Fold these 2 entries.
Entry 1:
Amino acid sequence: MYGMHSAQALVFLASVGVLIVATQWRHFHPFVALVVIAPAFGAIAGYTTAQLGSNFGSGFSEKIYSPGLVIVAATLVAGLAESTGASDRLMAKIERWRWLGSNWIAGLLGLVAGIAASPASAFALLTPLMRPIGGASVRSRQAASIALALAISASHGLALFAPVPMAAAAILGADWGNVALFGLPLAALLAAFGAAFAQWPSGFKATEDQPIAEPRPGAGGGSSRSSIALLLATAIPLLMLIEQSLGDIPSEPLGGGTARELVLGIGRPLMLLLVGVGLMVIAQPWRSLGLLADAAWMQRVLGLVASVLLIVCAAGGLQRLCQLTGMAEMLGERTLGWHFGAFGVLVPFLPRRRSRRCKVRRRSLPLQRPAWSSRSCRRSGSPTRTEGRSPRSPSAPAP
C-alpha cells in the first residue's frame, strides 16, 4: 500500500516538473499544459475513464465558484479603481511610506490576511492594492505579489485563529498559549524571509504592464473618497473572510445555531463580490455604473481575468485527482513513524498522547476504519476495537 502511494507521489512530482518545463521553457499556456498533464497523471494513478472525467470536472467546477468568483470580484474592483483614479491617488498617498519597502508592506498585509478562511480568496481580495503598494514598476508589483502570497501561506498555517492551527490544536488538545507562542514568531519570520526572497532578482522577464481599463476618464481628478472606497472594498470583504474563519472555531465563540450559519454565510464568494463591488459603486455611483454598463469596458476586464480563471480551475481538477488517490494521508501517516530527533521542534503541533489521536479517529470513523488507523493505535499501545473483543469471539479477526 505504501509503495503504491509512494509511486503516485513520484508521478505527481514528475508531473510538476513537466508542467514547469512546458510553461517556462517551451512557453505553453498553463491551461493547456494542465489539461494534458492532469489526465496523464490520473491514468497512471489508476483512474478509469469515467472516474477521470468525473473527478476532474468536480474539481474544475468547485474552483470556478471559490476562489473563481472572488477573482472576478477583485478584478472588477481593480478595474473600477483604475478607471476612477482611486488607484493612482492611493499610490500617491502610499509613496510617503515607500521607504519601508513594498515587499515588507505586502508581507505585513499577508500576515493579517492569512487568518482568513481561504488563503486563495484572501490573496485575490488584496490584489487590487498591489498596484498602489508596488508603485509604477511592474517588477516591483510582481515582487510585492510574491511577498504577499508567501506571507499569507505562512500565516494561514501557523498564526493563531487561522483554520489550520485551530483544527490541529482542537484535535490534538494543544494549549492555545503554546500554539500562539510557537506559531506567531515563526509566521513572522517566514513572512520576513518571503519579503527578502521576493527582492531577489528573477531570471524571468517581467511582463508588460497592461492597464485594466483604458481610457481612464478623470484619472487625475479622483477624489479622496474613491481611494477610501478602494481600501474599504478590500478591507471589509477580508474582514468577512476572517470572521468566517472565527466561526469555524470548535468552541463557537461567536455563537452557534443560526448565528453560526450567519457568520459562515457572510464569507461566501457571492457575498464578497456584492460587498466589494458595491462599495466601489457607492463611492462614485454615476461613473461606476456607467463603466459597468459599458460593454467594451466589461469585455476588456473579463477578458483579462478569463485566462486566470481557466488556469485556477484546471489546477483544481488536478488537485481533486491528487486528493482522491489518498497518497497525502498515507504518506503523512508513514511520516509520523519517523524520528526527527532535534528537529522535532519544527513540528508545530505535537499530541500530548498519541492514543488521544487514535480515540479521535475512532469517534469520527465509527463504521469503516482504515487499516492504517489500527496499525497506528497498536504501535502507540492504545487498544483498538478489534483488540478489545473477547478472544473467544468468532467474529474477532486473527491478529
Entry 2:
Amino acid sequence: MEDVAQEEGQQGGQSAYNVIEALDQVGGISAADIKKLKEAGYHTVEAVAQSTKKELSGIKGISEAKVEKLHQEAFKMLDYMSFQTAAVQYAQRQDMVYLTTGSRELDALLSGNKQGGGGVETGSITEVYGEFRTGKTQFCHTCAPPPARRRRPPAGAPPRTGRRPARPPPV
C-alpha cells in the first residue's frame, strides 16, 4: 500500500509530497513516534504540519512536547508553508507569466495594468461570469491551449477515413 502511495506521489522525478518517514532523520523524533502517527492516519509531513496541536495530542503516546517538536520540524521541511514578507511576495508577482487574450484592453483589464500587457495569470484559477450570450465560452476557447498534434498511426494500421464506424444493430 505504501509503495503505491509513494509511486502516485511522484511527478516528473520529484515527490508531490514528503513521506512521514523523512521526519525520522530529524533528532528527537523516533521511529516509534512515526509508527504511532501512521497508525493514527498521518502518512505525510504535510498532514502533520496542517493538523492542529490538539489533534496530534490526541494520539496515544504523543506528548505535548513531542507535538511541538513535530510541528517545528514539519514546518522546517515544508519551506512553502513559511511566512513571506510583502517584498518577497511582490517579487514573485513580478515574475508572473500571463497568457494574452489577443486584446490589449482586455489584457490590461485582467491584469490590472494600466499600461497594457498582462492577460490571464498562469498557475491560478480565473473565474469568468456574466449574463448569457456575452462571450464567456468564446473567451475560454480563446485562452485554451491548442490541442496536441495528432500522432502518426503506426505502420500497417488501417487508414482513417474520418468517419465513425457503423453502429452495431440493436439487440
